Amino acid sequence: MVGNMELRQSESTLTAMLEGELDHHTAKAARERIDAAVEKNHIRLLQLDFSGVSFMDSSGIGLILGRYRLMQTAGGSLEVVNTPPQLEKLMRLAGLSQLDVIRRNVANKGGDVHDTANQ
Amino acid sequence: MTQPINEMRLTIPSRSANESFARASVAAFIAQLDPMVEELADIKTAVSEAVTNCIVHAYRESAGLIYITCRIFEDGRIQIRIRDKGCGIADVEQAMEPLYTTAGGERAGLGFAVMQSFTDKLRVQSSPGKGTTVVMEKTIRRRP
Question: Using an 8 Å Cβ cutoff, are A90 and A56 in contact?
């Protein structure tokens, strides 16, 4: 369940490990937990990690765009990381590449949060 | 019009918890055509969009029933009909424009665009005050 996702914080970076099926029903709980954590902990960088997402419809796009606006308003930024191949078609259709938020191969397995994309 | 070789009907209340049930049921029914993983994902996504539209738009002021009919044909064609008796759409053409949404905030306005590009054919019929019917078709490729 997306609502049970793990939230990891490292300094001012918050990583949400989204999990399972992301639709209109499950996106609501995810949104509420992420937004509360961003606000409470003065987050500058929000990472949405999609590696555990098996299905997503346009509610997932709404979740991304809504968090993009949230982070813009807060003066921070958003990254969409580790998108499985089956979600790429929808992200392409939504034109997410234009926002430049998609990052590949980001190591989020352990407790450390760092970007290996440019190494 | 040829006769379907199989058909299923599903009627569910417009509760958001039923979104996953609806797409999983359609996916389970069409599994007999042995679709590729990607074809199955496309259909699940399109069904999820149509059912979500019923919940978020058609029955936004009330609760109601969503009627799903799925037919499969000899040639691998699947026809999925998703009907509601909700508020209807005054201007279907406008509603189908990508990014157009009346729901605000967290809706991306991509529902019809997804249904259109994830299936082969999409027809939308609506009468304000009476309801909306969405018919989608997709042909599953025969594997050699």
Answer: yes
Nearest CA in chain A to B112: A58
Name the architecture of domain B6-139. 2-Layer Sandwich (3.30)
- Chain B hits for A89, CB-CB cut-off 8 Å, are 42, 118
ipTM, interface predicted TM-score of the complex = 0.91
Residues of B that are catalytic: 49, 53, 107
B56: closest chain A residue by CA:
A24
Mutate to test the interface with B, among A1, A24, A26 (most CBs of B within 10 A): A24
| A116 has a pLDDT exceeding 50 | no
Q: How many whole angstroms separate alpha carbon A105 and alpha carbon A61?
A: 20
Query: What pTM was computed for the model?
Result: 0.91
- Say whether domain A2-103 belongs to CATH 3.30.750.24: yes
Provide the terminal-to-terminal Cα distance of chain A, rounded to the nearest Å.
33
